[in-house]
Specification:
The structure holds two protein chains of two kinds.
Chain A lengths: L2 H32 L8 H29 L7 H25 L4 H10 L1 H18 L3 H7 L1 H8 L1 H16 L5 H21 L12
Chain B lengths: L18 H20 L20 E2 L11 H6 L12 H5 L9 E6 L5 E4 H5 L5 E8 L4 E11 H8 L7 E6 L19 E5 H5 L4 E6 L2 E2 L9 E3 L12 E7 L6 H5 L23 E4 L6 H4 L4 E2 L7 H4 L13
């Protein structure tokens, strides 16, 4: 594919990744103007849940890019792994901001209480903490600086992070575990695939080797 | 310096009824008087009147009467009623499947009189009352709802429970066709709730058959539901088909599902956190949507939901952190 077309696709994907946020903002504004209930009469909860859900979706998307690229033999797709991953981080940040700002209304003592007392929030915060070094080492410059090996190590954290994220989701659910179950199954399949390719059960694919 | 110590039951400025709500209430009372004159039955709706008819002769009670009501739209579009699905809007979407006429409630157990009764058999001998109550959900949101109902005690007395009746248990209808949420095996249907007898006899406990002067909307537990405002919302069981007087503490649904999280008593208690979230504060759902609702300041949750004066004596000598 020509570099130019690839760039257009990249920008397009970037815009699409912003759509969930755009929709949430659009919906809350419509609700404000027309008193519709797109974000329900409890939008605080809705923002929390929606942002958390999109964070997990983008992390899973990011995780699935490599297997997809390998399976359909399209090496160039790998750039989307980074885009989706960074958007995952972006939505995790928004999720945390929404929880702290809208739900706790910046009651920082309440946040510390939550982090120390409530396992699912502890797990969520650890996941967030582990995402920071990944996001910080995502630019080409930094990769060159720290070297591919260390970069690889840091970025294999994503499997732990995605599991932490999905457990966080499981543990806060009061009823209907369908969604977290689906996410967990997808993550486990991706993880197994990765382990299998690594141990050459499925044969090493030369995709990422220079 | 002037320091004002506000009492627990003082009305906060934010809770004072808006003029619009006040006027609506006047109109509602006037129109109910008019319709009352034109109906022979005190319960027009059960005489086969269209469902938009309003009750007559509702006695007004003062509990929380000065608080700003959650809008009808809010009350009917944000519900936890898992019989219709676990989403907050599932009940509004699917509860039209529920057929509330005819409806019978079976009274059984340790009482002199038992048997099956229609709603009007149950309700008619008692005077209908409007009770404006706060409803505090265990999920840390709350509403203010103008219920229409009768004191539970007035109904219990008529069935003359005997001295063995230490508890009262309630059951919701089971019918997968009318309640599609019951296809989920997450809960072992029927939904069961219960009270200690003295709790049930407390004047605050009511059986409600309507809200906002209208017959109970299906998504809110038509045709008849319990309302115990000092307990978390899930105790106020909906669409009741069975009431039994029993000797032992009933095995209530949420308590059985997660005993560490939901106790039998489940009294509103800001000092006892749910293991997964704080119960110190609550989001008041006004029915408004949009940015107004997004930035509504949280309010402090009151011990026993602000009804300590009426019910605290029931728990004298009990450690409510242990018996949560």
């Amino acid at each position: 594919m020509a570099k130019k077309t690839r760039n257009i696709y990249k920008h397009l994907v970037f815009v699409v990744c912003l759509m969930p946020l755009a929709w949430l903002i659009f919906a809350i504004l419509l609700d404000t103007i027309y008193q519709t209930q797109l974000m329900s009469v409890d939008p605080v909860q809705k923002f929390d849940r929606e942002l958390g859900d999109w964070a997990l979706i983008f992390i899973i998307l990011s995780l699935s890019i490599r297997p997809i690229a390998e399976l359909i033999k399209k090496k160039e797709l790998i750039i989307y792994r980074k885009i989706f991953g960074l958007f995952g981080f972006f939505y995790v940040c928004l999720h945390l901001i929404a929880y702290t700002g809208l739900n706790l209304q910046f009651n920082m003592a309440g946040l510390l209480d939550d982090i120390s007392k409530r396992n699912y929030i502890t797990i969520g915060i650890i996941g967030f903490g582990l995402l920071i070094p990944m996001a910080a080492t995502s630019s080409k410059k930094v990769i060159k600086y720290i070297g591919g090996r260390l970069w690889k190590k840091i970025h294999s954290l994503i499997y732990i992070i995605s599991l932490l994220g999905v457990f966080h989701f499981f543990m806060m659910t009061r009823a209907d575990f369908t969604r977290p179950t689906v996410y967990l199954i997808i993550i486990l399949i991706l993880l197994l695939y990765r382990l299998a390719t690594k141990s050459k059960i499925l044969g090493q694919r030369p995709l990422l080797r220079k | 310096m002037l320091i004002k110590f506000s009492k627990k039951y003082d009305t906060k400025p934010s809770e004072i009824t808006s003029e619009n709500n006040f006027l609506t209430r006047r109109r509602f009372i006037q129109s109910s008087l008019i319709s009352g004159a034109s109906l022979l039955s005190p319960l027009g709706v059960f005489a086969g009147q269209p469902t938009n008819n309003i009750f007559s002769n509702i006695k007004k009670m003062s509990f929380g009467a000065n608080e700003k009501l959650t809008s009808f739209k809010g009350i009917t579009n944000y519900n936890n009623f898992y019989e219709f699905g676990t989403g907050k809007t599932d009940p509004a979407q699917y509860s039209h499947l529920l057929k509330t006429e005819p409806w019978t409630v079976e009274i059984m157990g340790m009482a002199k009189k038992t048997g099956k009764f229609s709603i009007s058999d149950l309700i008619k001998p008692s005077e209908l009352e409007e009770r404006i109550y706060r409803l505090r959900c265990v999920e840390a949101w709350s509403m203010v709802i103008p219920w229409v109902g009768v004191p539970l005690s007035s109904i219990i007395k008529r069935f003359e429970p005997n001295s063995k009746a230490k508890y009262i248990a309630f059951e919701t209808l089971v019918d997968k066709k009318q309640m599609p949420g019951q296809n989920s095996k997450f809960i072992d249907w029927p939904y069961i709730e219960g009270l200690r007898m003295d709790e049930a006899m407390n004047p605050l406990s009511i059986l409600a058959i309507g809200l906002y002067g209208k017959p109970m909307p299906n998504q809110n537990g038509a045709p008849i539901r319990l309302v115990v405002p000092w307990k978390y919302g899930f105790k106020s069981i909906k669409s009741i088909v069975k009431i039994s007087f029993v000797e032992n503490e009933p095995k209530t649904t949420w308590n059985q599902l997660a005993p560490r999280e939901y106790g039998f008593y489940s009294n509103v208690n800001p000092n006892r956190d749910h293991p997964r979230w704080s119960q110190k504060e609550e989001r008041r759902i006004t029915g408004e949507s949009g940015l107004g609702a997004l930035f509504t300041p949280k309010i402090k949750t009151e011990y026993l939901n602000g009804y300590a004066e009426e019910v605290a004596h029931l728990y004298k000598g009990m450690d409510l952190k242990q018996f949560f």
